[in-house]
Write a structure and sequence with these properties.
By secondary structure, this protein is of the alpha+beta class. The protein has two domains: 272 residues, 3-Layer(bba) Sandwich (FAD/NAD(P)-binding domain); 181 residues, Flavocytochrome C3, Chain A, domain 1. It has 15 helices and 21 strands. Strands 1, 2, 8, 9, 10, 20 and 21 form a seven-stranded mixed beta sheet that branches. Strands 11, 13, 14, 15, 16, 17 and 18 form a seven-stranded mixed beta sheet that branches. The longest helix has 21 residues. The radius of gyration is 23 Å and the shape is globular. Flavin-adenine dinucleotide binds next to α1, α2, β8, β18 and α15.
Length: 549
Amino acid sequence: MAEEGFDVLVLGTGAAGLTAAIAAHEHGAKVGVLEKSDRVGGTTAWSGGMIWIPNTPHQKAAGRSDSREEALTYIGALSNGLISEDLAAAYVDAGPEMVRFLEERTPVSFYCVADFPDYHPEVPGGKAEGGRTLECPPFSYHELGEWAARVEVSPYFPDIHIAIGETTLGQPVPVPMPPEVKQRRIAEDERGLGHALIGRLLKGCLDRGIEPLTGHRAVELILSNGRVTGVRVEHEGGERVIAARNVVIATGGFEWNERFVRAFLRGPLTHPVSVPTNTGDGLVMAMKAGAMLGNMREAWWQTSVVVPDTLVSTGRQIISSARGLPGAIIVNRAGRRFMNEAANYNAVGAAMQEQDTASGTYRNLPCWVVFDQRYFDRYGFAGGMKDGLNGGTASAPDWITAAETLDGLALKLGIPAGALDETVARFNAHVEAGHDADFQRGESAHDRWWGDPAWKGQKRATLGPIGPGPWYAVEMLPSGLGTKGGPQTDAEGRVMHLDGQPIEGLYAAGNAMASPFGMTYGGAGGTIGPAMVFGFLAGRHAARHNARA
Ligand SMILES: Cc1cc2nc3c(=O)[nH]c(=O)nc-3n(C[C@H](O)[C@H](O)[C@H](O)COP(=O)(O)OP(=O)(O)OC[C@H]3O[C@@H](n4cnc5c(N)ncnc54)[C@H](O)[C@@H]3O)c2cc1C
């Protein structure tokens, strides 16, 4: 083997890749990690950093009950025939093991984000009282030395010195952070959210002498007699082949590859919110190696709005809880509501793909979040313009359509006259009756949790009256946190060839693999949870079965 060769070479430095690297090293492998970007951490660093892992001791310590059977029942209930029982069982069984392993052998630690409900808590096995969502406590980036400046910084969380469990989303009653804690967080550069998770995983790698090679883009697998022997890599100033007996593809999804998005996804995903380096390189490599693909039409669907890049550097803002707050509804081009605005983002994103039987077009595209002045004054919009909060009156910038009347708004949006008036009157009648007879907004514990914290846990947290005007509207766009199709794997993370056998030495994890979750999103942390579990399984298996060539 060439001098620079590795037993296990991991491609990508998100949660999937770094977990795989640590697990492989723990089991005796010489590990290398390549990262295409100049910064490490991928979308994981941009994220909330939560992981959804059923049946952990953390859940029990928080006074919540769970079992293997309940978790499998829940996942099975959401399967639509797409979730393999083997992979679901591997995930549920290995989840707590992965958590324990990282906590014992690295600086990674977790606690339960108490009360955070599953995303479909009312289906069998679902947990309305939460417990399956974990996150890391904030982590001091001083511990990373020069690597602190080489981690991706999230455009979506302006305050990185906070944990989800400390926000209004992560607790039943909002508790303000004491000023001395805030000051210490800033002084020690203690970062929460995805930064905490990636910081801790990266430290776990660095402690083991694993230093990711940034600016190194893997482009092709080298195979000999059907088994992986290395990877061709492009980097500034050239390219080279790095020898490796095993390769873990953890290169994220293909959401930034327009050609693949059009070819594979079941509906439009025009505004991805992940790191732009996720262009499906791993998918290309796996396809060329003859991998069987799976779950190709699916993404972790999300919604966003276009905003000035002075507000968010990516020029788009994710719209999650904002669309379900009291005083907002979402309407399609007919001026009609078409879904529960407070449902989870994966479900809402999918609802945008419904086809009209007569015209064959997407019935609900374009669509708009419509809100009233009271909403605007109370919540601002898209993470900005909260100047109305202290009793003032927010005013609309250019990118928000505004009108004094609903008909005026409809005219500007191209919605038939009278339709918005009817929709608003019907919705307000539902609010008055205390029940959204059309879309059951506020019926689920999920909706009530994500709503206005002043009414935390109550239907009123989302189901409030809308109006009077002035009125505002912003187009809501089909987005994704990442795609979830890729090479099919077995329960050990081994990539399967079209002929039904594993490709020797090839593994995949995270959004680069065919997700074990089919169409669904189990709960907060539902993407990073499986990314880490299958990263753990892949890294461990690759190291244990590191057959000499
Ligand atoms: C604002 C926001 C909040 C979110 N919050 C959560 C949350 O709390 N919980 C949750 O579960 N999910 C969350 N998500 C989704 C989650 O971040 C992603 O689904 C998850 O991080 C994907 O992990 P990954 O390791 O598969 O990929 P990534 O973290 O995206 O990492 C992939 C890496 O591979 C690199 N790469 C790509 N191609 C190559 C190549 N050819 N060679 C080498 N490297 C390559 C990329 O540059 C990138 O660094 C959130 C997403 C966003 C945007």
